[in-house]
Amino acid sequence: MLITMWAGVSVSVLQILWFVLGVLLPTFFWFWFFWRRDPKPEPVRLLIRTFLYGAFAYLPAALFELSMQTALTGMALYIFIAVVEELLKYFATRTVVKERDFDEFIDGLIYSMTAALGFALMENIFYGVSFGMEVLLVRGLITMSSHVLFTAPWGFALGYQRMRNHNKYAVPLGLGIGIVLHSVFNGIQIQSHPTWGVIALVMALVTVMFLVADRLYTTASKEP
């Protein structure tokens, strides 16, 4: 009886540990890592609102993707997933663009990152409940960071368009780049077997995206 009770407590504690390591810590880390670049921090209410919109955006994304899994296969499905997810994260971010506090170039990156973290948090919770909490560690390290990095091109474009008030093609181009990166990422990690070569390829892609995003944040933080 005591062994059974202890086993139940151990599993519960382990699940909480996976949740903390795979969901909460990566969320706080990535938010801090990019938020600290902002010379003029955004209002907490707008950050929370954008985060929640990003989290809610996962629900229609999941429904769209489940409804199309029988109609689409292979790369067509991965591209469809990328389009749906990037557009919904974009719409979650668009809710703050007209706010008075959206007054810096870097704000497009800050709010797109915030929406992406909300989306990724909900997605990871869904995967943890569906496939076991132990999957959250890998997803927290790779998938959550990738969601943030996919938004960097169009988040940068949003800030550019808002502050420069011209070049109507900037945001569609940024979205296109984000969708391509997302599609390639999906194709590598889902379509291939999890060999060391595939893992190295995924990590290489994430590293390149991180370096590009880091450059975009640095550039935007220096602009008024």
- Helix amount, in percent? over 70%
**Secondary structural class:** mainly alpha
The outline comes out as globular
Mean pLDDT over the residues: 85
| SSE run | HHHHHHHH
Low-confidence stretches: 1-10
* Tally of helical segments: 8
Strand content: under 5%
Distance between the termini: 65 Å
Major β-sheet profile: none
State the domain count.
1
Task: Give the number of DSSP strands.
Answer: 0
Using the CA coordinates, give the radius of gyration: 18 Å
3D structure, described in words:
This protein has 224 residues and is mostly helical. The protein has one domain (20-219). The chain has helices at residues 2-35, 44-68, 74-94, 107-131, 136-150, 152-164, 170-191, 196-221. Helix 2 crosses helix 4 (107-131) and helix 5 crosses helix 8. The radius of gyration is 18 Å and the shape is globular.
Which short descriptors sum up this protein?
single chain, mainly alpha, disordered N terminus, hydrolase, membrane
In short:
It holds the Pfam family PrsW-protease. Helices cover 81% and strands 0% of the residues. The protein contains 8 helices and no strands.
List the helices and strands and how they pair.
Elements: H1 2-35, H2 44-68, H3 74-94, H4 107-131, H5 136-150, H6 152-164, H7 170-191, H8 196-221
